[in-house]
Write a structure and sequence with these properties.
Shape: rod-shaped
Largest sheet: 7 strands, mixed
Structural class: alpha+beta
Number of strands: 7
Radius of gyration: 36 Å
Helix content: 55-70%
Order of helices and strands: HHEEHEHHEEEEHHHHHHH
């Protein structure tokens, strides 16, 4: 039997009988260091498995596996386990779900991803979904440039565990884990402190991305209002609006879950940590206001560009009309003299041709000066 299959038996770790069963399972199967993904029996999705007690990382023997780690934490009733995963499969996550008694609906959301930001409670377990964003660097903004890349972080927290499931190419929690470990006082507050740190980290990324997007919007605005702004590519404006919509889908729905974390009584989140979530909610509000202002600004830029295009088209039409009026004079005169009548004025006069050419030239020059004076040419 695999370790994942045996995890179903580890549901009563608080009872003596359950601990004896765990001990028998541990003796029956080789122990593997889950911190090394290549040797993890749960698959390569396991990124890190760390235990903390009183805010300090506990060094476990290399031979220790996840079952033993959870057993030690629950036996001492102190500290918690932080297990990090990256895009696990159903098979890889099944054993973990059994061990920590995770709800099947939450497990399905964590594996399948593509969820809206939310917070849900399943018994004593809290399940939170965050949309992560990353600014995609580019030398020049084009109508097909990718500006914002999104991912997801799912977080399960209980009284003695934190499970993070990450989807996407960015949003690594390694630097965040190191930052938390440098502040044992905050980490000693338990899994809720980790949830707050993740939420704060995600929202800080929102603010960073909005600052970078603002630079692109400023560049587009400068190009549109330049001397030849009517010739600017409107596709860049539409591309920015599409990417801004992607950012909006990540940021705006998170407002209500953060409000619940900051105000709604929850066993796994104490009142002291809820005050920190209120601070994160304020930062999120700032990001939402920036996105709303960007959307309005892009609409204004797009309308200004369309107005510039209309004005440029009107100017072109005026020029075409003016030149058509100038050309109409020789066309009319030549049309008259092209008729085959025997008795026409000055038809047989020696100076008739030069006179007609002179009249045409004078009339055309007069029309040209008039149109230039009125700004048509």
């Amino acid at each position: 039997m695999s370790m994942a299959g045996n995890l179903r038996k580890v549901t009563g770790l608080g009872r003596v009988g359950g601990l004896r069963k765990v001990a028998r399972l541990a003796r029956r199967h080789p122990r593997v260091d889950l911190s090394h993904h290549a040797r993890s029996p749960l698959g390569s999705s396991v990124v890190k498995c760390v235990t903390y007690q009183e805010g300090v990382r506990v060094r476990v023997p290399v031979a220790g596996d996840l079952v033993d780690t959870v057993e030690r934490v629950r036996k001492k009733e102190d500290g918690f386990v932080w297990l990090g995963l990256h895009e696990p499969t159903n098979e890889e996550f099944a054993g973990i779900a059994e061990l920590f008694d995770l709800h099947p609906l939450a497990v399905e959301d964590a594996v399948e991803a593509h969820q809206r930001p939310k917070v849900e409670r399943y018994g004593e377990t809290l399940f939170a979904v965050f949309k992560t964003v990353c600014y995609v660097e580019h030398e020049k903004l084009t109508a097909t440039s990718e500006v914002v890349d999104t991912g997801e972080i799912m977080v399960f927290i209980g009284t003695d565990f934190v499970i993070t499931v990450r989807h996407g190419r960015h949003g690594s929690l390694g630097p965040l884990r190191e930052e938390l470990e440098s502040n044992p006082g905050q980490l000693a507050k338990g899994p809720a402190a980790v949830l707050h740190a993740i939420a704060d980290h995600v929202v800080d990324d929102y603010l960073s991305v909005t600052d970078s997007v603002q630079a692109d919007i400023d560049q587009v605005e400068t190009d549109v209002f330049a001397e030849n702004g009517a010739r600017a590519d409107p596709g860049r404006i539409y591309q920015l609006k599409r990417e801004l919509l992607e950012l909006k889908r990540a940021v705006v729905p998170l407002g209500r879950p953060l409000e619940e974390l900051a105000t709604r009584p929850m066993r796994v989140i104490g009142p002291e940590i809820q005050a920190y979530f209120r601070d994160v909610s304020d930062h999120l509000l700032r990001a939402k206001e920036q996105i709303a202002s960007f959307d309005e600004l892009l609409n204004s830029i797009l309308q200004a560009h369309l107005a510039q295009v209309t004005v440029a088209q009107n100017e072109d039409m005026r020029k075409i009309t003016a030149w058509a009026a100038v050309i109409a004079v020789p066309t009319m005169v030549c049309g008259v003299y092209g008729m085959n009548f025997d008795h026409m004025p000055e038809l047989h006069w020696r100076f008739g041709y030069p006179l007609v050419i002179g009249v045409i030239t004078v009339a055309c020059l007069a029309l040209y000066r008039g149109f230039r004076r009125n700004g048509w040419l």
